[in-house]
Amino acid sequence: MWQEEYQAWTEEEKYSLFAYAGTYWYVAPTLTEPDSLEIPVLHLAMTLHNAKLNKGRARPHLSSLKEVNASIGRPDAALEPESGGAFKREAEKFLEGVRQEVNPDAPSRLACYFVSIDEDTASRRKADIRGQREIFPCRLLADGGVHFADITLFDDIVNSMGSPRARRLAEQYWSRDNSPVTVPSTNLEILFGGSLYFPAWEQLPSLDFGRIASWCIAREAFLENG
User: Fold this and answer.
1) How many other CB atoms sit within 10 Å of the CB of residue 28?
2) Which residues 6+ apart lie within 8 Å of 137 measured at CB?
3) Does residue 212 contact residue 44 with C-beta atoms inside 8 Å?
């Protein structure tokens, strides 16, 4: 549970996860009733649902991915881009390969939470993301890595795929020297590999997992049959 006095999460008195200083902002999916088999599973309100069940703590995004894959019989499935057109998906895979080479300690874009340093930046991010989403204040718990990046580099990489420039841009994206000081605040995106704590967890939406499980099975059959 959250311990306000210590600014930390305590897990059954076995260990504590202290929070990074300050409040951050997360643009979270809020869809509770899928209306199409083409909607990616993680475009549902999975993070918020799990946080509500756990009294505010949403475990690392990688954990949610593994749980989803296990539920559909693919526990060892490789990480894949969640959405986007062919060019963006190719760029995501390219960026992941560069990350593994130059900064493997940084959270993967394929398995992290993208959080913002302030609400205005989160609002701009929300406008650029598809799907039903809302902005929620959160705390970052110290059970995962953090990477600061310039969000504008991603589009430059998409437009430079196949050229040496794409590699240079990707290395710049994953530079260990990136920080809120070196990246303009309007361009800053924060990749976080740990857990989020939502102070207003009691007001978060819930999912009907029986219905979601049935929908996941139907969706997998739909995808397998084209």
Assistant:
1) 23
2) 23, 24, 25, 119, 198, 199, 200
3) yes
Three-state DSSP at 77 gives coil
Counting Cβ atoms within 10 Å, is residue 186 exposed (0-12), middle (13-18) or buried (19+)?
Answer: exposed
pTM value surpassing 0.85:
yes
Helix axis angle for 164-173 and 152-160, nearest 10°, is 160
Which 3 state secondary structure label does DSSP give 3? strand
Contact between residue 150 and residue 194 where contact means Cβ atoms under 8 Å apart: no
Summarised one tens digit per residue, pLDDT across range 176-210 is 999 999 999 889 999 999 999 999 999 999 888 77
First vs last Cα of the chain: how many Å apart?
44
Q: Which two tokens stand for residue 33?
A: 């009733």
